[in-house]
Amino acid sequence: MQLTGSEYEDGSLSSWINKERFQGYLQIDGFTLYELGDTGKLVAIAVINDKDPSEECVRLKSLIQTVAKDYRQHFNRDFQFGHMDGSDYINSLIMGEVKVPSVIILNTSNEQYFLPDGPTDSLEELVGFITGVLNGSAQAYGGDGIVQRVKRVAFDARSTILSVFRSSPVLGCFLFGLPLGVISLMCYGICTADSEPDVGDMELMKREGLTDEEEEEEQQRRAAQLEGPENDDVDDEEEEVEAEEDEEEEKAPEQKKTD
């Protein structure tokens, strides 16, 4: 068997074997797409509905098979061709929606993807789109930048929540409603809490910070404060009695004079 290829373009023998270990055209699923990422090739996929194929699906599948076979010398080094049943996996991969049927080219090394600007109803249009991707004139979408990573986290979280609610609405309400309720109660408690401590709490804090001797002195001081008003009342009564006695003594000489 004779191996054809350039060492400069194809690299080592192991690299060439890794690139050529797949057929030129195959049915692609999520696992296969992951394996194709090791080849370093761009993946041109016809997104169709195999379960209920329409005339457009059949025509697009036939077109991409023709490109994979008749243009092998042009594109085989850089492209892997195939078709995928349904658009769910592709939609989750690009965080968007592609219509069925349609063509999409994926760059698995940097998570970019390419969509045709116009229709691809003919062989010439499809070849033109693939050539534009190869020479860099086609618009690239996606990528693995920071913005795309943030979008990926948000998209995955949204997809997870929606899948839980679709499969079990009751479980979804429990899983997401309970934490939200607890957080709401905590926020309400923080917002409505008194900013100033009660007098009783302050007294308790003072007692906890006092030693036994200081606490005894504090009790004596409080007892003295409580006895203070009573002593004041007694002193007032004594003063009133003395004042009455003085008045009587003053009246006594006057009565003697009148007698």
UniProtKB/TrEMBL annotation:
InterPro entries xrefs: PDI_TMX3, Thioredoxin-like_sf
Tagged with keyword Transcription regulation: no
EC number(s) stated in the UniProt entry for this protein: 5.3.4.1
UniProt keyword annotations, A-Z: Membrane, Transmembrane, Transmembrane helix
Location of the protein in the cell: Membrane
UniProt entry tagged with the keyword Membrane: yes
Reaction(s) the record says it catalyses: Catalyzes the rearrangement of -S-S- bonds in proteins
Membrane-related topology note: Single-pass membrane protein
Stretches for region Disordered: 202-259
An example molecular function term from Gene Ontology annotations: protein disulfide isomerase activity
Pfam families recorded: Thioredoxin_6
A GO cellular component annotation in the UniProt record: cell surface
Acidic residues compositional bias, start-end: 229-251
PANTHER family: PROTEIN DISULFIDE-ISOMERASE TMX3
Name of the protein in its database record: protein disulfide-isomerase
Gene behind the chain: tmx3_2
